[in-house]
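Handout, section B. The chain below has 108 residues.
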Amino acid sequence: MPDTIAATDVTRKAQLFHALSDETRLGILDRLSRGERCVCELTDALDAAQSRLSFHLKVLKSAGLVTDRREGRWSYYSLNAAAFDEVEAVATAYAEAAATAPSSGCAC
């Protein structure tokens, strides 16, 4: 298995891919791909209750995929490029392993 896969532990990989496995969270990421957004903008754009959105933002933030900053009473969210580089590295390593992995030769 390539070193990139081994270098990232399974728990971290699960955290990243879990955060990416929900339609609402992907919608949040799509909005944030256009730039920093206030939580109220996300609530309106996604037609979601703030409590529901806060839950999903917490998952994304815990995975490191988004960062936040406070300005007065508002929270602003943006994408964390380094975390997406990490996702890309893991996915690329799996793709490379799949392309080069020998068959098991098992006859069962």
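Note. The chain has a mean pLDDT of 90. Compare this with the example in section A.
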